[in-house]
Structure formats: C-alpha cells, structure tokens
Specification:
Elements (H helix, E strand, L loop, with lengths): L8 E2 L5 E9 L3 H10 L5 E4 L16 E2 L8 H11 L6 H20 L6 E2 L2 E2 L1 E2 L9 E2 L6 H15 L3 E4 L3 E8 L2 E8 L5 E11 L20 H9 L3 E2 L4 E8 L11 H5 L3 E3 L19 H14 L5 E4 L5 H7 L1 H8 L10 E10 L2 E3 L11 E3 L4 E2 L11 H17 L12 E2 L11 H15 L6 H12 L12 H22 L17 H4 L1 E6 L3 E6 L4
Parallel strand pairs: 2-3, 2-12, 3-9, 12-19, 18-20
Antiparallel strand pairs: 1-21, 4-8, 5-6, 7-8, 10-11, 11-12, 13-18, 13-22, 14-17, 15-16, 16-17, 22-23
Amino acid sequence: MIPRYLVDFDVAELPKFEADVMIIGSGIAGLYTAIKAAENRRVLLITKKALLESNTKYAQGGIAAVTSAEDAPAYHIQDTLIAGAGLCEPEAVRALVHEGPGGVQELIRLGTAFDRENGELSLTQEGAHSHRRILHANGDATGYEIVRALSEKVADHPAIEVWNEHMVIDLLTEQGECIGALVQKPNGERLYVTANATILCSGGGGQLYRYTTNPDIATGDGVAMAYRAGAAVRDMEFIQFHPTALCHPGAPRFLISEAVRGEGAVLRNIHGERFMEQYDSRQELAPRDIVARAIVHEMERTQAAFVYLDITHEPSERIKQRFPTIYRTCLSFDLDITADWIPIAPAAHYMMGGIQTNLHGESTLARLFACGEVSSTGVHGANRLASNSLSEAVVFGSRIVERLHSLPPLAGHTLISYNDNRVDSLASSIMEQQLKLQETMVHYVGVRRNGEGLQVALDQLRGQMSVFSAVLTSREEIEFANLLTCGLLVTDGALLREESRGAHYRDDFPTADDGVWRKHVQQRREQGITEECVHDI
C-alpha cells in the first residue's frame, strides 16, 4: 500500500510558518487564485521552480469563452458535453460557460493583452468547437502572456509571499482536515506551514509518459499528495494525448496548437494522402481523442513514426503572423511551416481526472481545495474540449475564493509526527526508474489499451514500489514517488473501466457502454476504488 507520508518527520523539531491561504503551484490557477485571495488575506504561494515556469506558459491555442454575438452559451455547453463523452458534470459546465466571459474580462483588467482585430477581440476556432470563440495572445503564445501579466501582479502584491524553488512533500492532516504542508527548502532543510486553507494548483502529470508536451515539472505532485492525505481522486484513467506534437530528430515534443488545424491545416500520412475523412466526418476538427487514434492507426498502417500536418496552402505571411512561436521553433529545426509539412505524432498532454472537487473547488478533505489541471471539477468529462482548461482555472479560482469567506478559522492542533523507520536507499538511479515507468506507461497505458497490457503495466509499476520504503531527500526522488503514485492510479482506473470512452480506448472493449459505465471511477487511499454516478442534466 502507498504510505501516508513520503518521509519521516516530527513537526516539533521543524520551523513553523503560518499563512491564511497557502497556494501550491504557479500556473494560471495558482497565480489568479492568489491575486483574488490576497484582496483580504495573507497568501503564501509556493512553487517548486520559478514563478514563470508552469504548464500554462506553454499553452498556445488560447482560452475559450463566448464573447461574440454570433456565438451563445448554449453552443459552448453543447460542444463541451459532446467532447466529454457523457462524463461531464452539467452544473460544472454551466458554471464554466456562463462565468468564463467575466473571467476573461478580469484577465484583461489584470493586464493580459489578447490579440485584437479592428479594436475587437480576435477569435479563432479549434477542434470540436462549433463557433469561433478562442481568444489568443501574440498569435500562439496565449499561456505565456497570461502568466506574464499575472506573475507581475503577484510579484508586486504586498499580501502575497512567494517561495520559489521550494518542494511541497506532503499535506499535513488532523482529524479529517488539511492543516498545512511539509515543505523542503532549496538547501534541503524542511519546515511546516499551517494554513486556514490549502489550495492545490500544481498541474498535471505529463511526465508519466516519455513523449509529452508538458515541461519536466509536470509530475503529478498535487494528485499524489492529496491521495496520500485521504482525498478522493476521480477519472484518472482519462489522459488526453494531443494529436499534433512535433516529431523531428533532435527536437522536443513541441506542441503544434489545435488552432493550426482550426485555421485550415490538414493531416497527411507519409504517402501524402489525407486520411481524416475515413475516421470522422468532422475530419481535422474532430475531438482530440478521435484525431489521436486516427493518427496512430495511420502510423501503424503505413509503418511510419509520424504523419504530417500541412498548412502550406495558407498565405505565408498569415501563417507567420498567426503562429509566430510555432513558426520560429520549427524554423530552428530547419522546418519552414510555410513551405514544409510538419512531422507530428500524438504526445501526452492533459489529465482530465484529478482531485475530486465540488462547484466551489472543495475536495473531499476539509480545508483542501484544488484548481486547474490538478482538479476534477467535472467540466472535462472523458475528453477535454480544447482551450477550456484556462477558462476553468479562472472560473473555479474565483469560486474557491468566494468559498473562503465562510471557512471558519483553523482551530489549534496537536503536533504531528510520522516514523516509518525508513532506512533503505534507492536500488537504482531516479533517472533509470523514471524512464522505466515512462516506457511502461507508453507501451501499455497510452492512446490504445487492453486488459492484458494494463495488467502487465500494473505489475511492472508495483515492482517499483520499493521507492516508498526508501529515504527520499532530493526533489527528483519525491517527484518520482508522485509519478509512480499517479501511474498506479491511472492504470488501476483504466483496468477497471471495461469500455472505450473519450480519451480512454480499449481494443478489447472498443465501444462505450452507457448502461454500465456512464459513471466516474473514484479512488481513495483507505477505501480503494469505487464507482460514482454522473449527475444528469
């Protein structure tokens, strides 16, 4: 069994820090929530790297919100529910859609400069959206622009204290509520933080897979910490693989935005043939799970390591203006996207599942909240609609802060200690162990799955559980323990769900089974794995 805490400690021997609100993570969810919470509270924001380093920074496409007279909330709701394949929570979707436009206006007020045409917000369309409703910044650098604006506000805010390069090891709990966290400083020293409210905004777990669009920091820390603390996690089997990540010798799996297809790019196999019409009537604008599986099938059918994304038929200057980051990045690898087809393949991109929350961002553990990719609000269902993630972070960040108004003060607590008599050292290097985990996940828990392979994956992952009895000191060791925790959760959920739905596809159960499986898979450390019905519209 996964232990309650990753390290032995006695808080009586550690320095103490007190905060009204502790926020863990510095993407859009953490930054925005910190700014809103700091209007009348002292906020401590902890990030394991620098303030600007997060998944949000790499978000290209944009943020989805109904801002055009030609669009309507009903269309956005419908698009989200369809993409979510029957597992969206309708009330959460309504909150996202109706409150998202106000969140966009708040981002603008806080300094985000979205692109405009003739004085109006410039909108684009992405896969599975029925209307043009995606706001973007600097063409294809939306996430970076949002993080830039918000991080400047955070850095200058007198009520927000920022700890860079600090690793949160575990959440501290007492009598069924979260009272703070155990934190490791850059020099390896540890302290404990108590907070009236703890908000996890730590992002997803893209590093579960060898090929991912996520940065190195995406190691599932928040989900793993919350699970160890006893909070429910939900729908972990649903991992979104972005269909179009750059696949080129010497290049990272750089994201080629959904918006490229939204602006007219087409997919071709290595023989130059378009193929999406064979898989879906929406062709290149089908939901991500359908496009990703179609690409994998074409790669297998043609025995190729990639397919091509072709936007060369669009005017050269328009491509450069609309996608400057993609253009410059590809050019650095001798690919001119105005003239060359872009070699691409699917890569792990986003976790639809995460820490189960209600409409106010509350987890099942008192005083613990979650926001952004680390959470399972019910918005994304089995397959996230493109560009809904940034909207979700803003909408539910605001809702969390509203809930803080009614949160009673933290009562006194006894000093916590934990001793598991850890004496073992790790048998092999963390780099070797993480690579082994990633290869297991890619081979057996990827775009296509089956029961036999999932059982092999589970056995291989369980074979790495000696890390939980070892003495962990470095950030990398703690991250690997978190990745292994998440890998076990994802694989367990995927093995239980004997159907194909959204981003979860099983060769041995190739169709959706609403009669049995239109429900969430919930996992808790003490209670194990259970099923929970979806609320009807």
